[in-house]
Amino acid sequence: MKRILIVKVTSLGDIVETLPVVADLRRAFPSAQIDWAADAAFADIIRWNPGVARVLSAPLRKFKKARSWKDLKEIAASIGELRAEKYDVILDIHGVYKSAIIAFLARGRRRYGYRNKDLGERGAAFAYNARFGPRPHTDAWRGMRVSVADALGYEFEDIPDHNVLLPPVAKNLDIPQGAPLAMLFHATSADVKKWPKDRWAEVARWLIARGYRIALPWGTDGERGEAEDIAALVPDAIVLPKLTVTECAHWIQASELVVGTDTGLVHLAHALKRRTVMLFAATSREHFGIEEPGRSTSVGDGGAPPDVPQVLAAIESVLDGNAPATSREAVGAGSH
Fold first, then answer.
1. Model pLDDT, residue 77
2. pLDDT value for 327
3. CA 154, CA 129: separation in Å to the nearest integer?
4. What domains lie within the chain, and their CATH numbers?
5. pLDDT band at 145; cut points 50, 70, 90
6. CB pairs under 8 A, 24+ apart, for 102-105?
7. What are the tens digits of pLDDT across the range 182-215?
8. What is the pTM of this model?
9. Does 153 have pLDDT greater than 60?
């Protein structure tokens, strides 16, 4: 096995939780070149994994919104780059039309995809000449690893290795020193996934009483307003400035604890080995949750958001674990 292409196009959390497949493949095929095709919006996160040789990206989301000639030319150029290599195996572990088209355009002997009933979009089946086995009865993240391992005939280690190495940032991020930092990711793209602001404030005050400093990130003007509403109820809470994904990742790396809704940046916190609690209100905890005893856990479920005592119990379960609190490791480049 000399060349392998992973196709996982979006979104942030899915991209992050696919990274352990790279480590699995590297162990199974140490000399193989592993490339990855994705939407340009998420390409940088993949580049943070040193196991990936080439990231092949196109502005698919951007073109869908703006329909600009510039984006179309970039997409056309990316097809040429995609076809510059011939792969021994192409792994579409996304299973929708756009990922299937990428898999079909790539040059390769075997193009793996899910069985028809496991595809996100049935029409994607046209692209494959090989199929993964039956979808295993496990969460989505482990399921991807099982599917690829079974198809290519190897076993993988139980604990996922995301292997994320953050690049430095040029400017001073003013990350506070001294008291341990807790980031509360209250924002989410879907209102049904939100948790009430007064509950966030109650959790924040509980953490402050235990010596934590609270940081509230945001991405849109509306989310900034929500952060300011929470901060008004929490003495000394920090409403962060608008951050790039890389800058936010450095804040996460500097934190002792991350609590947040089912969003990509909370998955990133888990990948960066922070103590992490993920809250579920609308999606399936069993399918999309994170779980690593003593470090990461999920609480709540689709249609059954957690109450404050449940969230506090989940926080205590990760703070009382045996995993070391290494919030300052590899942070030097990110704090100045």
1. 85
2. 36
3. 20
4. 3-152 (3.40.50.2000), 181-335 (3.40.50.2000)
5. very high
6. 102/7, 102/9, 102/37, 103/5, 103/7, 103/127, 103/128, 105/79
7. 999 999 988 899 999 999 999 999 999 999 999 9
8. 0.92
9. yes
pLDDT of 62 higher than 80: no
Average pLDDT, integer, range 124-143: 96
Q: How far apart are CA 248 and CA 256, in angstroms?
A: 14
Predicted confidence (pLDDT) per residue in 271-291, tens digit: 999 999 999 999 999 999 999
DSSP state of 321: S
Give CA–CA dist 76/113, Å, rounded: 24
| Side chain identity at residue 286, one-letter code | E
List the one residue out of 93, 84, 98 whose CA is nearest residue 33.
84
Q: Distance (Å, rounded) from C-alpha 48 to C-alpha 37?
A: 14
Neighbours of 220 (CB within 10 A): 11
The CA distance from 15 to 164, in Å, is 12
Can you read off the two tokens belonging to residue 43?
């390409």
The 3-state DSSP class for residue 212 equals: coil
Lowest mean pLDDT among 10-19, 26-35, 187-196, 207-216: 187-196
Q: What is the rounded distance in angstroms from the CA atom of residue 9 to the CA atom of residue 38? A: 4
The token pair that represents 39 in the structure block = 């939407």
Q: What is the dihedral of CA 65, 42, 326, 52, to 10 degrees?
A: 180
> Which residues make beta-bridge pairs with 279?
261, 299
The DSSP-derived string for 17-82 is HHHHHHHHHHHHSTT-EEEEEEEGGGHHHHHT-TT-SEEEEE-HHHHHHH--HHHHHHHHHHHHHH
Q: How sure is the predictor about 300, in pLDDT bands with cuts at 50, 70 and 90?
A: very high
| 333 pLDDT above the threshold of 60 | no
Beta strand spans in the chain (E): 3-7, 33-39, 54-58, 86-92, 107-113, 130-131, 181-185, 213-216, 238-239, 257-261, 275-280, 296-300
SS3 state of residue 297? strand
Does a cis peptide bond (omega within 30 degrees of 0) precede residue 189? no
Quote the tokens at residue 182. 């807790």
In a 3-state reduction of DSSP, which class is residue 238?
strand
